[in-house]
Write a structure and sequence with these properties.
Blueprint (H helix, E strand, L loop, with lengths): L29 H34 L2 H22 L7 H29 L5 H32 L4 H55 L6 H37 L3 E6 L4 E5 L8 E4 L2 E5 L3 H13 L6 E6 L4 H7 L6 E6 L2 H9 L1 H6 L9 E5 L2 H7 L4 E7 L14 H10 E12 L5 H13 L3 E8 L14 E8 L19 H12 L19
Parallel strand pairs: 5-6, 5-8, 6-7, 8-9
Antiparallel strand pairs: 1-2, 2-3, 3-4, 9-11, 10-11
């Protein structure tokens, strides 16, 4: 229990920031004051968790590998909270002023953290080093400030009405945890879809500043000197003004950052419920490029080479009337499948309906995909590929996994043994599965882990690759080198091109065989299988 302060000698001034006998001089009844402190705890806890989630979400988008980014943020922040709690002991004698200043600093740092991370990523060359260092700095700073809140709030609530330390801690933590629940739910369901990451962080900072300022300047204003009140008021007004100015400029900031990241040809930029979608070029002879979550997904310069290599070998050497495309919301894989005269049905399973709508409505993208989604043979299912495979009872002659590379933590379940077991279940007896497994040259371990995992699911494999175009200067996020694929079936599939099928524009049977032999020379043996509970792909 915190001991009460000794009374001041007769005629001596009360200690700075305190009333006589250590009792807070409140403008309201003690019970009301105690309730208002707990409301402040609730609001500040909600804001603190939003800052934490915002750092994890933005770092996962900018850097990738969400597990690593979450681990960095959580571990650094929890460590810093402990240090902040220890450091706050020195401020207990000036608890009201210290808490007000603390919340103003937290509002500014937390509110501006998203813009700072985005700026470093956009103008810092696109590498992960700068954003990751800044992520650690912000996690440390926010953790220090959040950790310092509890000792000061404990002091303030005890000065309203003394109670045993256990009861005070229980009340504070109850308000803190409920606030964290509200903040954790508000971030994905309110702030992110309605305001976006940048504006949502700025709005949270404003709420944090108002809550902290109201508690210090309203409830405990009599504990502050006139100079202290004036200084704290000016500080909060400046913080709110900076956050408001940033909110007014956030649209211009985002446009400038996107131009720095994608070049000056951004035509479409939208944040869907699943990802950020950006289209550049596609007009006046400029090449079209599609970016998903900051990574180049398709470019009109060389996408045909990728999609022909993905689709045509799988449609050769066997039946191909029923085709399933997992992913492929841009319609480009469906376009290649529809070129084959024997295809009667193409089911596309895409988790992001906004991407499909864009592929239908955007003139340049629709022209690139040959208006595949207008073809009556195509049916689109909005669903997660893993969940959809578990539920469907259909069988297919060809399954095309046109999915993000396995190095992205969020997609590792789509490269797990369980996933390939589900894909094997929907294959017809002579059906074939083709998987985009990432680059062979730059990520051979990930590529051969995919191949090993497919074999563990009971399928025979034929690995192959095709060379990709070197990245364009304006597309810093593009990856050059090659594209690696794995063709699989219950019996070893023949890697060939159907002479009765569509004529490839970028592939030849001889080059395909030569590339397959080159891939085989890079084989890594003895790799462990990737499963849902033990993923083997790293960022």
């Amino acid at each position: 229990m915190i001991e009460p302060h000794a009374p001041a000698p007769p005629g001596a001034p009360a200690p700075w920031g305190e009333g006589a006998l250590g009792q807070a001089r409140l403008p309201v009844r003690p019970g009301t004051g105690r309730f208002l402190v707990l409301v402040g705890v609730f609001v500040c806890a909600a804001c603190g968790l939003v800052y934490e989630l915002e750092l994890v979400a933005l770092a996962s988008y900018l850097i990738g590998d969400s597990v690593t980014q979450a681990s960095i943020v959580l571990s650094v922040m929890v460590f810093a909270m402990g240090i902040g709690s220890l450091a706050a002991k020195r401020l207990r004698c000036r608890a009201a002023a210290g808490f007000g200043a603390l919340e103003a600093a937290l509002a500014l740092v937390g509110g501006c953290s998203a813009m700072a991370l985005y700026a470093v990523f956009a103008w810092g060359g696109g590498g992960p080093g700068g954003p990751r260092c800044l992520l650690v700095v912000f996690s440390l700073a926010i953790g220090l400030l959040i950790g310092a809140e509890v000792p000061l709030l404990m002091e303030l609530i005890q000065r309203i009405r003394r109670q045993d330390a256990g009861g005070a801690v229980a009340d504070l933590f109850a308000a803190d945890y409920v606030g964290a629940l509200v903040g954790g739910l508000a971030f994905p369901f309110l702030l992110l879809p309605w305001f976006g990451q940048l504006t949502g962080a700025l709005l949270t900072g404003a709420v944090n500043a108002v809550a902290g300022g109201a508690l210090a300047l309203g409830l405990f204003r009599r504990d502050l000197s006139r100079r202290g009140r004036r200084l704290l008021l000016v500080t909060n007004v400046l913080v709110l003004a900076l956050l408001a100015a940033a909110a007014l400029l956030v649209d211009d900031f985002e446009r400038a950052a996107r131009q720095a990241m994608y070049g000056g040809q951004v035509r479409v930029a939208l944040q869907t419920g699943a990802q950020e979608v950006v289209l550049t070029g596609g007009v006046r002879g400029r090449p079209l490029a599609l970016f998903l979550d900051g990574r180049l997904r398709a470019s009109s310069r060389d996408e045909r080479r990728y999609h022909e290599a993905l689709v045509l070998p799988a449609l050769s050497g066997g039946p191909h009337a029923r085709v399933l495309v997992l992913g492929g919301g841009d319609g480009l894989a469906a376009r290649e499948a529809l070129r084959h005269p024997g295809v009667r049905r193409v089911d596309v399973v895409e988790p992001d309906p906004a991407l499909v709508r864009l592929a239908r409505s955007d003139r340049a993208l629709a022209a690139l995909n040959g208006r595949a989604f207008a073809d009556p043979r195509v049916r689109v299912r909005t669903a997660d590929a893993f969940g959809w495979l578990r539920q469907t009872r259909r069988t297919y002659d060809v399954v095309i996994a046109d999915l993000p590379e396995p190095g992205d933590t969020s997609s590792t379940k789509l490269y797990a043994q369980e996933f390939y077991g589900l894909a094997r279940r929907v294959l017809a007896p002579d059906g074939r599965l083709v998987v985009h497994a990432g680059p062979v040259a730059s990520a051979p371990r990930a590529y051969w882990t995919v191949e090993t995992t497919i074999r563990a699911a009971g399928l025979r494999t034929a690995p192959y690759r095709v060379a990709g175009r070197a990245p364009e200067p304006e597309h810093a996020h593009a990856t050059g080198g090659d594209w690696g694929f794995v063709l699989a079936a219950r019996r070893r599939p023949a890697l060939t091109l159907d002479p009765g099928g569509p004529r490839p524009r970028t592939l030849t049977r001889a080059a395909l065989g030569e590339d397959a032999r080159a891939v085989e020379r890079t084989r890594l043996r003895g790799l462990p299988v990737s499963t849902l509970v033990h993923p083997r792909y790293g960022g």
